[in-house]
Amino acid sequence: MGADCSALARGAAVLGTGGGGDPYIGRLLAEAAVREHGAVPVVQVEDLPDDAVVLNVAMIGAPTVMVEKLPSGAQFAEAIRSLATHLGVTPTHVACIEVGGVNSTSPIVAAAELGLPLVDGDGMGRAFPEVQMVLPTLSGISATPMALADEKGNTAVFATVDNRWAERLARTATVEMGCSAITAQYAMSGAELKQSYVRGSLSLSVAIGEALVDARAANEDPVVAVAAVLGGTVVFEGKVADVERKTVTGFARGTARIAGSGSDTGLEAVLRFQNEHLLVEVAGSVRTTTPDLIVTLDAETGEPITTEGLRFGARVRIVTAPADPRWHTPAGLALAGPRYFGYDTPAVRHDGTVSEGEHA
């Protein structure tokens, strides 16, 4: 992983559904690490030895904060070293726990500095705001022990009774660390990773990024190109009329209202987010909810727009796309469905139908 950091960051920002941190920052950090340490080898999930020791690294906190409080490159490797020392293991691979924004490229930084290969997969197939919201949780894999590292050199290691407690304690510590930190978590074997991970996430990110750029070069519609790679649908087009956003308990929470244009003239879409887009309403009706993907793209260029990047007057198109099928099981919906976030609605899939997990 080296020359295609740009395509990876762009595509991962799409899969990040508005969250995961600023992809531009992640790209710059990854490219700097590759220049200093060399390209990072990428390993397919099915090629991992069952006894591999895999550690995940990611940013935790509010993406809005990272815009002004940049992580240092050393934080990513330091979090992994701290966790490996606590566990008494020597890691053999680095992986992404979520594919989205900076959290798709930050593992490149750690892998480059540590001289380790990177796994082509992730624990979600998208981005979610809380530590326990990963497919490994559904497989019974513990998030802890987990390490946190801030830009000042502080580190902490947590051991918790379950993954939801890992979220609660890590979020509290992250707020004290300035509302953003780097975490190493979900240490697992190669066998456990094969059972619980989404395969090919980094490759898919690169494919999305390349499709977007290629469509523009060919004077084709980049938004349609992105939707095609995702297997998704363009559900709304319009101009951002209002954004209400605030950083609360380590999250960027808010609502954006989109005034329709083109075929959607006279209609309004409402986006509701907590780091990531979790629900979109069109003309007062719920159109799609978490766990399926809700992606906001620049109407002309197709570039993904993060929740912290939404601005009044921006012309956008909203794309929805399917999530990994495991998210639509009853256990998956209990972990990351709309009701978990306080929305009084069943989970609505990208095609507008109610998730089958609601009826199981």
Automatic annotation (TrEMBL):
<dbReference type="Pfam" id="PF20906">
    <property type="entry name" value="S-Me-THD_C"/>
</dbReference>
<dbReference type="InterPro" id="IPR010318">
    <property type="entry name" value="S-Me-THD_N"/>
</dbReference>
<protein>
    <recommendedName>
        <fullName>Hydantoinase</fullName>
    </recommendedName>
</protein>
<dbReference type="InterPro" id="IPR048350">
    <property type="entry name" value="S-Me-THD-like_C"/>
</dbReference>
<feature type="domain" description="S-Me-THD N-terminal">
    <location>
        <begin position="4"/>
        <end position="159"/>
    </location>
</feature>
<dbReference type="Pfam" id="PF06032">
    <property type="entry name" value="S-Me-THD_N"/>
</dbReference>
<dbReference type="InterPro" id="IPR024071">
    <property type="entry name" value="S-Me-THD_C_sf"/>
</dbReference>
<dbReference type="InterPro" id="IPR027479">
    <property type="entry name" value="S-Me-THD_N_sf"/>
</dbReference>
<feature type="domain" description="S-Me-THD-like C-terminal">
    <location>
        <begin position="162"/>
        <end position="347"/>
    </location>
</feature>
